[in-house]
Design a protein that fits this description.
Strand order of the largest sheet: 2-10-9-4-5-6
Shape: globular
Strand content: over 45%
Order of helices and strands: EEEEEEEEEE
Oligomer: single chain
Distance between the termini: 39 Å
Helix content: under 10%
Length: about 120
């Protein structure tokens, strides 16, 4: 089991930027994807983006495409989420997770709070 630790959340004004980090302890072997999700108060968990561990291919939710960018540093076992032009509706707890092959998202981090003020 991989331990994931998110960081980089905080309070930012609308239009601002934040970069979230997700550090994985231990080496993630095999075909896998790392992804970012968020859960806003009173709402269901929302998929934001993922990145392939093999070829670096990415997928984005429509709600964040063009504003958020997922990337990874394999040497540091870390995945990032660069968030630009933040909006108050982006306020949520942000989580990273790992998915192996075709399995459901399994290992999760504890989350980091992002609050965007208007």
């Amino acid at each position: 089991q991989v331990q994931l630790v998110e960081s980089g959340g905080g309070l930012v004004q609308a239009g601002g930027s934040l970069r979230l980090s997700c550090a994985a302890s231990g080496r993630i072997l095999g075909s896998h994807f790392m992804g970012w999700f968020r859960r806003a108060p009173g709402k269901a968990r929302e998929f934001l983006a993922d990145i392939s561990g093999s070829d670096g291919g990415t997928i984005y939710a429509e709600s964040v495409a063009g504003r958020f960018t997922i990337s990874r540093d394999n040497a540091k076992n870390t995945v990032y989420l660069q968030m630009n032009n933040l909006k108050p509706e982006d306020t949520a707890v942000y989580y990273c997770a790992v998915r192996y092959g075709l399995a459901p998202w399994g290992d999760w981090g504890q989350g980091t709070q992002v609050t965007v003020s208007s």
